[in-house]
Amino acid sequence: MSPPATRTLDGPIRSVAVVVREGSTEIDSVTDRLSAWLTKRDIEVTVEEVDRRAREGETSLDIANHPVDLVIALGGDGTLLRAARAVVGTDVPVLGVNLGRLGFLTAFPDAELEAGLETVVEGRALLDHRFTLRARIEGSGQVKADKLFALNDIVVHTSGAARVTPLTLHVGSGDSREEVGSFAADGVILATPTGSTAYSMSAGGPIIVPEVECIVVTPICPHSLAVRPLVIPATQEVSVRSLDPEAEHQVTMDGQVERVLAPADAVIVSREAHAVKLVRLPGQTFFGTLRRKLNWAASPPERA
């Protein structure tokens, strides 16, 4: 049985780890404000050391071996996605503080830092359980890479210059594995409902409410009018393989972590067993964020 989609963040917060956006002009001042506020309340603070791993979509924080009560991502959606991969397999929730332009997944902007933190530590914030995807790479019957996680999406695409490539798609596993079909496109996006408002949406995929458990398969610029996005159950595996023995491909997780694919490699994507818990404030809803951040279904102008 799946965990409840939403519950209250009611546990005491005694330790916090902070993931930061590299290169932000205001990150030092916001980090100082955050550390001062938490320290004043006797909450232990650990700020990640930004190094090469951050530029490759990872973090220096080891949440699995050094658990904390909360991870705070200071930045935009990209920083939150990086923090989310750090907590996969744990019960540690992630709170996003927006320092960027959009911040669709974040709970509040840095201008509301102290007020937002007060709501969180007082136990009045909410937790949304968002399922993630796991990818493994198989070549010649051997598993070449595993434990590649994404909260938003996993994308199979050509490396280097953008060009159309033939791909084949299968759904299911074992005896129930079935070929969906083959198509020529720039690549294919396998997205969670959380990621349905990101790259998949830009490529023409549907917007999925986070509580709906499914995987969205969105071809990128397909060279056919007959190829359209698919929505399949989250219980299914999806396999993507190139049909071009000369093509150079790669798989990308959340637009941050990349792995190069050999011509015969298949990317197998399935639901990860552990959900990621995202913190939001009371009154903050998916549809409200959709209207405010993406201008979805905005009211038409009145008649003059």
CATH architecture of the largest domain: 3-Layer(aba) Sandwich
* Secondary-structure element series: EEHEHEHEEHEEEEEEEHEEEEEEEH
Report the uncertain regions: none
* Proportion of residues in extended strands: 35-45%
Could you give the distance between the termini? Answer: 54 Å
- Describe the main β-sheet briefly: 6 strands, antiparallel
Q: Trace the largest sheet across and list its strands.
A: 9-8-19-16-11-12
Please state the average pLDDT score. Answer: 89
CATH class of the largest domain: Alpha Beta
According to CATH, the homologous superfamily of the largest domain is: Probable inorganic polyphosphate/atp-NAD kinase, domain 1
Task: Please explain how this structure is put together.
The protein has a six-stranded antiparallel beta sheet. A six-stranded antiparallel beta sheet has the order 15-14-13-10-17-18, with no helix packed on it. The protein has a five-stranded parallel beta sheet with strand order 3-2-4-5-6, with helices on both faces. It is built from six helices and 20 strands. The protein is an alpha+beta fold. The protein is globular, with a radius of gyration of 20 Å. The chain starts with 5 loop residues before the first strand and ends in a 10-residue tail after the last helix. The protein folds into two domains: 6-131 and 275-294, 3-Layer(aba) Sandwich (Rossmann fold); 133-271, Sandwich (Tumour Suppressor Smad4), CATH 2.60.200. The chain has helices spanning 27-40, 52-55, 77-87, 113-121, 199-202, 286-294, and strands at residues 6-8, 15-20, 44-47, 70-75, 94-98, 108-109, 126-130, 133-139, 142-150, 153-158, 165-171, 178-185, 187-191, 214-220, 230-233, 238-242, 249-253, 257-261, 266-271, 276-280.
